[in-house]
Amino acid sequence: MIERDRTLLQALQSLLEASTRGDPQSPLLWTSKSTRHLADALVQQGHHVSHDTVARLLDELHYSLQANRKTKEGSAHPDRDAQFEHINKQVRAFQKRGQPVVSVDTKKKELIGDFKNAGHEWHPQGQPVKVRSKDFVDKHLGKGIPYGVYDITANNGWVSVGIDHDTAQFAAESLHRWWQQMGSRVYPTAKALLVTADAGGSNGYRLRLWKVALQALADAIGLRISVCHFPPGTSKWNKIEHRMFCHITENWRGKPLVSRAVIVNLIGNTKTRTGLTIKAELDENRYPTGIKVSDEDLAAVRIKREKFHGDWNYTILPRV
To answer: Do the Cβ atoms of 53 and 60 come closer than 8 Å?
Structure first.
């Protein structure tokens, strides 16, 4: 079926996006849509598929049908749903104009060395890979910090593996490298870039340094950089989590990340049947913490805030 209809998997995954739930770091996702409803929707799109085939494809995509479970979610921001709608509208508008849209985030920091990595891998019986019994940071190898940029439209991604600190400058440099190595080639006539990001971390909406770093990036690449932040506590809805990071985790499961080169190579060789490709590169630059941004520095940023939640939605304009 897949061999005859190469767009079927992508069409199915698009239908699932609206109802995807679960832990974004896990390769297991689940959906509330029935296989019959999904099959009907695919048939309406011109695909010849039965509900039995949909069930098999869902299994291949690591989905399973699950019941509701009560959980204590805690307080949610009153504008959460409205912000989701705003982000969706912005994404569609940029895509309609042929402008790039990316999802960004920092993946979990990884210990470098012969440490245990979750998951299993095939080895001769009775010959498991031996790793250290204690997870203490190796002073010479340190940690790898993967910062990812996922192109939502093209279904490809970039990961800069840092070795110093996860700062706003590191995040902006990762975006810069993605644009130089991938984005500018896919969108040679682009005038603007939309970035969807979490509310916190190195790309948090409260960080002055993030906006200053984006200004330097906008000046360097000559694009208007629009940013939409997900509301606090909703990072699992960030596309990069369940479209890219989970596949990286699955690809290196059971493999000790013994060197920086191993991390970069495992990320760069992550692929999926839906066509995802990733490029990765080591970033050996130093990114000091504790940098203070003065009021004068912030005032120099050419920022245009949206009427709706200008703290979450804004555009940085190039100064050149």
So the answer is: no
d(CA 206, CA 46): 46
Q: Let me know: does 130 contact 115? Beta carbons within 8 Å.
A: no
Q: What is the pLDDT of residue 10?
A: 80
The DSSP element (H or E) to which 316 belongs, if any, is: strand 313-316
Which stretch of 4-8, 68-72, 119-123 has the lowest confidence by average pLDDT?
119-123
Query: In the numeric block, which tokens belong to residue 220?
Result: 């360097």
CATH architecture for the domain at 80-316:
2-Layer Sandwich (3.30)
159-197 exposure pattern, b = at least 16 Cβ within 10 A, e = fewer? bbbbbbebbbbbbbbbbbbbbeebbeeebeebebbbbbb
Q: What is the pLDDT of residues 72-84, one digit of tens each?
A: 444 578 888 899 9
- The residues, ordered by sequence, that sit 6+ positions from 176 with a Cβ below 8 Å of its Cβ are 217, 220, 221
* Phi, psi dihedrals of residue 239, rounded to the nearest 5°: -55, -35
Determine the 3-state secondary structure of 227 from DSSP. Answer: strand
DSSP letter assigned to residue 21: B
Helix (H) or strand (E) holding 314: strand 313-316
Checking DSSP bridges between strand 110-111 and strand 143-151, what pairing results, if any? antiparallel
pTM recorded for the entire structure: 0.77
What are the sequence ranges of the domains in the chain? Answer: 8-64, 80-316
Encode pLDDT of 159-174 as tens digits. 999 999 999 999 999 9
**How would residue 69 be classed by pLDDT, with cut points 50, 70 and 90?**
low
User: What DSSP element (H or E) covers 303?
Assistant: strand 303-305
| Alpha-carbon torsion, ordered 308, 310, 313, 319, to 10 deg | 130
Residue for token digits 């897949």? 2
Mind listing the pLDDT tens digit for each residue in 132-155?
A: 444 545 566 668 899 999 999 999
